[in-house]
Fold this sequence. Notes:
The protein is mainly β. The protein is built from 1 helix and 12 strands.
Amino acid sequence: MSDAEYGRRMDVVAAVFIENIELRQAPGPATRIDLTGVHFSLAAPSPAPVTVEPHLVVLVRCRPDEPGTGALETVYERDGEQIARNVQPLTVEPGKFAYRLVRAELEFPDYGTVEAHVRIDQGVVTPVPFTLLPPAD
């Protein structure tokens, strides 16, 4: 769909599961975002069934001509069925970038994959898979 069909909107630039995030200043002034431990799978901390709380970071941009407010929605699905949902207000200065952390308690009755479906204001969905593996030996 075109921007006109959605009206003005912000964009999801990237969404990944991470272990840690750090911000630092660079000349300009500019900001650097250091993401560590980017992953799309994880060995379970104990045998299934198990609950895990992966950290999803969503990078967002606001175009210069946008108002910079909206709602960030993340729906976690397994086999097409919703198992968790997070909605949070989103404010980004026009012409700038921002990030949001999304945490959810995900119950895994068995090992497998869950998809986080990320979108802003009913916009385009960005799917992000997360697979729980059996515990490492």
